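Hi U.,

Before I forget, here's the chain from the pilot set. I'm dumping it here mostly so it's searchable later in email.
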Amino acid sequence: MQAIPSFLRHSVTRNYLLLTLACTALIHTPAQAQVDVGKSSMMRQLVPAETLENSATQQYQELLQQAKAKGALADSNNAQLQRLRSIAQRLIPHAVQWNPRASQWRWEVNLIGSKQINAFCMPGGKIAFYTGIIDQLKLTDDEIAMIMGHEMAHALREHSREQLAKNQATSLGISLGAQLLGLGDIGSTAARLGGQLLSLKFSRSDESDADLVGLELAARAGYNPQASVSLWRKMGEATGQSGVSFLSTHPTGPNRIRELEDNVPRVTGLFEQARKR
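Structure:
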């Protein structure tokens, strides 16, 4: 085989490197969002993200230890857990679009045996589902993806961080102007506040935000966006349309379903593209 001339070899190498860099830039360029949720509140900056994520990780591990002690923590061979982790593997690559920090998170997915209709994702990507929500609602993979996307969206949009900052600002009586000059007591109490994460209630705007971001996450991962509507209809039937909700923060009802129906067409193209890959 004839040797490639030095000048040509260097040219080919340079072009290859340029192409590789271009492809890498393209891969890491955030995709344009199809749902309209606006920017996250700057209030969240008053609680250090890393501190809160560390607190969440600690609380998550304590919860898993308690579940394991009761024989309620699914092992890695559990079929339902494998199903959840498979769905998560498809959703997680699209998380960075909504929060660059997500690329540094050590994502975890676990399953806890309980009749509770419950699921959550804590700051830092710590996900848990309860068997009750899967069994009682007889969830399809598409519907699980909608729940998981919704919970991931709360973490990605840092709703917990924002709510904790607001709570602390109110309870401590610190003015926003003073907080912007330094974290003060808010920074020092962030770790302690981590204990409130599982009982934290989000606002209606946060819930709507998570619905839409979760819808897009799932669609980009190749899950049918129509499942968002069937999911919340099932949730309504399970709770008697009374507003009772899992995690005490997820109201059901016609308004929620109507908003999802309005946004399904916005992400249908993403779903169809993903299904072709």
